[in-house]
Amino acid sequence: MRAVGIDMHGGTDVLRVRRVPEPVVGAGEVLVRTVASSLNPVDAKTREWEIGTLPANLGWDLSGVVLDSEDERFRPGDRVIAMSAQIATGRGTWADVVSLPGDLLAAAPGRVGPEEAATLPLAGLTALQALESADVGAGDRVLVVGAVGGVGGLAVQLARHLGARVDGLVSRTSHVDAARELGAELVVDDPAELADGVYQVVLHTAGPHVTHALAEGGRYVSIADAPLPDVPGASKSYVEQSGKQLGELARLVDDGVLRLRVAADLPVERVGEAHELFEAGGLTGKVVLTFSPPTTGRGE
């Protein structure tokens, strides 16, 4: 079967679509034929930075169809989604067939296709867990920094669903309307336009730290790599695998609460081009990798 991997760190030229043995489903695991995945910042960092163990198969997001299952909750033919913490587990999802513990899987949302569903796992779990870390609730004023990014766009929608009033900071004027369409009220592209001390929660997903807008005693949560600002109680939120929470997110998609966004989809053979498009920035949706149906066997 095909899998996208690296033998060294570097630019997009180190990406290889290579042939590897198909995994064997283990106890409590589910074997999934990958239909689509999506790119996240961690994928580019793993490729470029000196992190993780080499050689490595890449990918965190999974949208596919069950082939075999040692978990009674899933049966062959089920459409599923999952997030695999590739750096920690070594189980990359950019492969024709992936075997993962059943606890990481959830039924895919029926309202969208597999390409859109592939944009949900890592970004959705990151947004949900960060908002939970910030204890966002009804009536809170929330500022999402990076409000049209993969995580930020979902965070805007989730915070509104929790009853918060949500504003957004974006990186360019052309993104203002996109953030408003997701439910943000006030949207600006210049931090200086934000009033001082008005937000109970600032969720920092990318870009500059905006500390002046945080109310006294407010909660400042960041998912970015940059060091935390010197703000009392500021904290990081690191995404964790959870099929249960992923199922909650899928139901919100089916209920029309969450809108998923695809900016471009490319076949896995064009993974280098997908990375270049992703790293160029300026997108208002995610870049998706698609896997053509196998022509022989299950993953070939």
UniProtKB/TrEMBL annotation:
- Gene Ontology molecular-function annotations: oxidoreductase activity
InterPro entries in the record, alphabetically? ADH-like_N, ER, GroES-like_sf, Lipid_raft_assoc_Zn_ADH, NAD(P)-bd_dom_sf
Enumerate the spans annotated as Enoyl reductase (ER) domain.
10-289
Record-linked Pfam families: ADH_N (PF08240), ADH_zinc_N_2 (PF13602)
Report the domain of life of the source organism: Bacteria
Protein name listed in UniProt: NADP-dependent oxidoreductase
UniProt organism field: Actinomadura harenae
Q: What is the lineage of its organism?
A: Bacteria, Bacillati, Actinomycetota, Actinomycetes, Streptosporangiales
